[in-house]
Automatic annotation (TrEMBL):
PANTHER family: CYCLIC DI-GMP PHOSPHODIESTERASE TM_0186 (PTHR45228:SF1), CYCLIC DI-GMP PHOSPHODIESTERASE TM_0186-RELATED (PTHR45228)
Modified residues (4-aspartylphosphate): 51
Keywords per UniProt: Phosphoprotein, Plasmid
Source species, domain of life: Bacteria
Name of the protein in question: Response regulator
Transmembrane segments: none
Domain (Response regulatory) ranges: 2-118
Annotated HD-GYP domain residues: 145-342
Signal sequence range: none
Organism: Rhizobium rosettiformans
Length: 361
């Protein structure tokens, strides 16, 4: 343990140093308060023993300067003084002192008081170690819970893909596009990652759609289209009762990703800011992927045509701010399409011009 000693009297300082050595501690002896200040905040000690009457700075003034640094605020401080003035003692207590030694110092009293303070420091250190251990354990538990949540989402997405193998590829692309758009929108990295994890669940409700409708090789009838629209409500219903914040975000996306900025979407005809931001982002990513991939009822569009369509839809189908973020994210989106080169999206990419040139389109 290290004990800070500050006393302008050389004889007293030598005497205190010898007492500290009897405690098998290291004495950090200073004859001038300014010398202590020069070493802050790199100076490390466990207990401070400070004389009150000193030139330049008295003990209270010195302790006030020391306590400006967060690292010293839990360190015990003892004042050495011949002054029994209650005002002085109150000022010392307010500065952070927790004990007093009266001159002339009694060696046995000094050893007993400082030994007690060292025991207090040891107990505080153990408590701090325990608190740090608990924090680490909580962090591990939270990480494990998060990992389980991600696994559940992966499994549910996999289950949904058994009806339509293209669905799994579509959800992966939409997830990556959504994260890229969210980043350019200026959202926090943690939230961007959450959108990437939750976005694959946007079409989970399609598990309830009859295969005759879901896999139809042509345009849907009015009745079939109404049936298909139910996937938003079903998806939200599947996910929303979960206590997981990630699942609740997925429910928010699933239930709202077919709403439109102008209020002409479904299932609730929400408009503008009524639509959750997460759903506005995924709606754009979902639409872009749908346009640039082969579907049973259409060929894939070239990228430049899909981009032009989305830009034209700003303020009607899409949130204008999301469209702007999408344009800024186009270079990254192009790279994502290349990463999924074995997916249907590659066909549109190979027939497109350089999407980077459309960043400021």
């Amino acid at each position: 343990m290290r004990i800070l000693l500050v006393d302008d009297n050389p004889t007293n300082l030598t005497f205190l140093t010898k007492l500290v050595e009897k405690l098998d501690c290291v004495a950090l002896a200073y004859a001038a308060p300014n010398d202590v200040l020069d070493e802050l905040p790199s100076l490390d000690y466990d207990v401070a023993v400070i004389d009150y009457q000193m030139p330049a700075l008295n003990g209270i003034e010195l302790l006030n300067e020391i306590m400006r640094f967060e690292k010293y605020r839990g360190k015990p401080a003892v004042f050495v003084t011949a002054d029994n003035d209650q005002m002085v003692r109150m000022a010392a207590l307010e500065a952070g002192a927790i004990d007093f030694l009266t001159k002339p110092i009694n060696p046995l009293e000094f050893l007993a008081r400082v030994r007690n303070l060292l025991s207090l420091v040891i107990a505080q250190n153990k408590l701090a170690d325990t608190a740090e251990w608990l924090r680490a354990e909580v962090d591990k538990a939270v990480a494990a819970l998060r990992s389980r949540e991600e696994e559940i989402i992966d499994r549910l997405t996999l289950a949904a893909s058994y009806k339509d193998s293209e669905t799994a590829k579509h959800t992966r692309r939409v997830a990556d596009y959504s994260e890229a758009i969210a980043r350019e929108y200026g959202l926090p990295p943690e939230y961007c990652a959450d959108i990437r994890l939750a976005a694959p669940m946007h079409d989970i409700g399609k598990v309830a759609i009859p295969d005759a409708v879901l896999l139809k090789k042509g345009s849907l009838t009015k009745q079939e289209y109404a049936e298909m629209q139910k996937h938003t409500l079903v998806g939200c219903e599947i996910l929303r009762e979960s206590q997981s914040s990630l699942m609740q975000l997925a429910a928010e996306i699933a239930g709202n990703h077919h709403e439109r900025w102008d209020g002409k979407g479904y299932p609730r005809q929400l408009s503008a800011q009524e639509i959750p931001l997460s759903a506005r982002i995924v709606a754009l990513a979902d639409n872009f992927d749908a346009l640039t991939t082969v579907r049973p009822y259409k060929e894939a569009w070239p990228v430049e045509r899909a981009v032009a369509h989305i830009i034209a839809g700003a303020g009607s189908q899409f949130d204008p701010a999301c469209v702007q973020a999408f344009q800024m994210a186009l270079p990254e989106i192009t790279n994502i399409m290349l990463d999924h080169a074995d997916d249907a999206g590659a066909k549109a990419l190979l027939h497109s011009h350089d999407a980077n040139s459309m960043r400021t389109a």
